[in-house]
Automatic annotation (TrEMBL):
One Pfam family cited in the UniProt record for this chain: T_cell_tran_alt
Region listing for Disordered, in residue ranges: 71-102
BP term (GO), one: osteoclast fusion
Name of the gene encoding the protein in the UniProt record: LOC113095994
Protein family membership: Belongs to the TCTA family.
UniProt keyword terms in alphabetical order: Membrane, Transmembrane, Transmembrane helix
Higher taxonomy: Eukaryota, Metazoa, Chordata, Craniata, Vertebrata
Location in or out of the cell: Membrane
Descriptive protein name: T-cell leukemia translocation-altered gene protein homolog
Transmembrane segments: 36-56
Organism of this sequence: Carassius auratus (Goldfish)
Length: 102
């Protein structure tokens, strides 16, 4: 019984996909303003993705090296050597605990 349900579900999915694709092809072949706008937007999306891909191929290592700087310090390279020796976390650690007063 479960196999017939799976087959029924699969056949419905295939039928709906085929009907969607046939309508899509009919609309694609029609010279309609809506189709022209869709083609322009689809072309823009594809060109943008290709440009991002090639830009990442060319400059990806540089961007990665800038983000993960090498050197002393904390995460992602830390702070430069000329920074003060006490950060905000270290200076707050020695202070007395502040409480809320009403």
């Amino acid at each position: 019984m479960e196999e017939s349900w799976d087959f029924e579900f699969l056949s419905r999915m295939v039928d709906s996909l085929v009907s969607f694709l046939s309508e899509f092809v009919d609309d694609w072949l029609a010279n309609d303003t809506r189709v022209a706008v869709f083609k322009i937007l689809l072309s823009w999306l594809i060109i943008s993705l290709v440009a991002i891909h090639f830009a990442w191929k060319m400059y990806g290592n540089t961007v990665n090296d800038m983000y993960y700087r090498q050197g002393t310090g904390g995460q992602n390279g830390g702070t430069p050597d000329t920074a003060p020796h006490m950060s905000g976390w270290e200076s707050g650690a020695g202070d007395a605990m502040k409480t809320h007063r009403e």
